[in-house]
Each structure stands twice: as structure tokens, then as C-alpha cells.
Amino acid sequence: MVSVGRRRPHPGLSIPPGGLGPTPPGMAGGVQVGVPFGPAALAEIERTGAKRVFVLANRSSVPLVADLVSELGGRGVLAAPLCSAISMGAGEEGLLEAANAASAANADCVVTVGGGAVQDAGKLIRLWLAGQGGAAGDGDATTDGIKAALALDPVPPLPPQICLPNSFAMAELSSVAGMTLRGGIKSGASHPSLMPTAVVFDSSLSSGLPDWVRYGTALRCIEHAVGAITHPQADDEIRDVALRGLRSIREGLEAMVCDPTSPEAAERVYVGGWCALRALNTNSCYPALGHLIGNMYSARFGVHQGSCSGILCGRVLAYHADGSREGQERIASVLSGASDGSNKKSAARLVAELVATLPGVSRDHAEVGVGVDELTEFAESRPLDRLNKLSPVPFADSADVLTMLGRSLEEL
């Protein structure tokens, strides 16, 4: 079920029944867009029958969900004080602290409020609760212990997760959970059971978001769409869904630049982001080349993934332009708004121009403190076999990777 609330109109945005495709198995509460998060979350908690709810929020969301937390306490179903231990990238230390707190409280439901790091952390905490950290307990949480539940046969049922996203990272719409280990190493888990139970997007939770989060996560949606469209495993149906999402994201972003507080703009981006991610997660299209490299870049250099997309997305498209020409022509048509063939710019150039309009999003390596030596080391340490499975144009060696990453914006 994907539903759009009736609180506000969506000019020009039509979502027919099933128009975004079915929600994945396990997401019994569906995706609700444009409805007040408090009543919707409480209704989902009641529907699941949860009695001990653990609330995890990023720090900026804490005051916004104070009333919801108070209501849960008044109903006697709040398992523990609100936890705000998660850092960018779901860092290991904060993740383990939150997992231990949820286990100590014997939580039977997780409510996650915030961006991708919090949503992914919620999935991993559910793994810990279902496996090592359930009612019986098994000592303090470890990253290996969290993932150990996936080795059980069968994987134990996970407690429900109700996601209240405040941005457009879209982690809440996938069954993949990332975390950053000590030393900046990206890790995580993937399993169908990690799919959250329900998602409620209420743009009021984005109040006060800094530009680098608001526009950076929206740009990440663009990367999801172009990655799905140009993926070697994509078919026409996948491309059509991703292109529809790309159009909605672009229109929402343009409106959001004019009015960052517009609920309609945020909802348009979110619905488009859902389309893009559903396309990316179909037919083994996850991850896309740019998505994977962006995640690696983020973990290695501590850069927000929105800026990773700003720096890398156009460069990745330019690298494999010859191998994904048809898809990139369709991307360019959507991004330019020229369906009559009058557009003469490449998809890579149009992405770069879009990034230039987004406040707070970096465009080049130097803006995030990554120099030539660091970029060279990064390129030399990339797994070529894995990259080549995702790239429409193979990399012969690390020099090809460096050439892609180091391409100047003027060459796009």
C-alpha cells in the first residue's frame, strides 16, 4: 500500500492504485505520505500490538517527537527514554549503545525518526533483538553479533519497525542496512526480513533541516534513479518506473529550491524517491555503480552521502556514457524538461548543473578536503571485479577509476 494523504493537494501528481508498484513483503503498514506522523505512528503501534516501544531519533528530531514520546509514556508502552546515540553513517559506537539500550528494555517494537543512518540503525537493532539481544540476552552487542541472526536457519522474526523519515535518504524503503565500523570501513546487512513494517513521511519532521541534509538527500534520490536507469540489469519496466520517479524528484527539487518549507515540494520528492528506489531494488539492480562508490567515498572520507552524490554522480555518468547511451538520453530528456528532442546537453552535464543549484551540496573533491593523493589511494583500493559487475563500461585498472573520479566538471 502506498497512500498519499488528503491533508494537502498535489498539483499534477497522480498516483493511481498500484501505480508505484506493490510494497515489498513484510511492509504490512505500507508507505503513507503527507499524513501527520503522530497519529499515524500510534495507529501502527496499536496495529502491531507492541507493548514496549523503543524510540530512536537523530538529535535534531528529538524536540519534534517529544509529544509522541510523551504519549507513548502516558499509554505505558514506552520501553526506555528516547535514544539519540546514532551518528552519521550509523557509526559503530552509537549503534552498539542503542542496541544495548533496546535489549535492556526488552523492546518489542522500534520507532525510528530521522535520516538514513537512524533508519538503518533501527533495522540492525531489530536483528540484535531477534537474535543475540532478545529477552534472554547474550551480553553486550557487537557488530558481528548483530549480523549473526542472519546466519540462523530460519532467521528469527524481527520486531516491527515504524519509520518516520525526516529527509530523502530512503533507507527506510529498503531491506539493506549500512553501518560504519571503527576505522571508516563500510559494512552492513541485507535480508528481506529487514524491510521496515511501516513508513510515514510527514514533511513537518524536516523542519529546521540544514541545507546539506535537505538537498543532499534529495540529490541522493536522483542518483538512485539514474543508477537504476543505467544499470546493466535494468529492463524497460525498471527504467520506466525510475524515469517517472526522476521526473517527480526534479520537479520537487526545483520547487524546494524556491521554497524549502513547501510540504508539496517535499512530498513530490519523496514519492519520486520511492519510485527510484523500488526500481533500483528490482531485478538485482542494487547497488548501482554510483551508489556503491558514493557509499565507499562517504565511509572513507567522512563525507555526507548527498555531497558524495554531488561530487560523483555526474562523473560516473560521464564515464559510462557510451555504454548506457539510450538510458542517458532518456535521463537528459527528463532533467532538461525537453521531451521534443531539443535538449543538447548530456545527462552528466545536466546532473552537474542541477547540483550547482542546490544549497549546501558539494560539487568537487577539494570542497570536502579530498586531495589528489587521497583520491589516488582511494581509486587504487577499489574492488575492480565488483565495480565491473555494475558498470556499463568496464574498468581496465585503477587508473580508469581515477580518471573517472578526477574528471573536471568542465568535461562533463
Explain what you see:
The chain folds into 2 domains: 2-204, Rossmann fold; 211-411, Dehydroquinate synthase-like - alpha domain (Dehydroquinate synthase-like, alpha domain, Up-down Bundle), CATH 1.20.1090.10. Helices cover 46% and strands 9% of the residues. It has 15 helices and 8 strands. The strands form 2 sheets. The protein has a 6-stranded parallel beta sheet, with helices on both faces. The longest helix has 23 residues, at 236-258. The two termini are 40 Å apart.
**Physical arrangement of strands within the biggest beta sheet:** 1-2-8-5-4-3
The helix-and-strand class reads: alpha/beta
Helix share bin: 40-55%
Q: Count helical runs.
A: 15
- Give a quick account of the main beta sheet: strands, pairing sense, barrel closure: 6 strands, parallel
Tell me the distance between the termini: 40 Å
Can you tell me the CATH topology of the largest domain? Rossmann fold
- Alpha carbon gyration radius: 21 Å
The CATH class of the largest domain is Alpha Beta
Q: In percent, how much strand structure appears in the residues?
A: 5-15%
| Tally of structural domains | 2
Average of per-residue pLDDT values:
91
Which regions have little confidence, pLDDT < 50, spanning 5+ residues?
4-19
What is the overall shape? globular
In sequence order, what are the helices and strands, one letter per element? EEHEHHEHHEEEEHHHHHHHHHH
Q: What is the β-strand count? A: 8
CATH-level-2 architecture of the largest domain: 3-Layer(aba) Sandwich
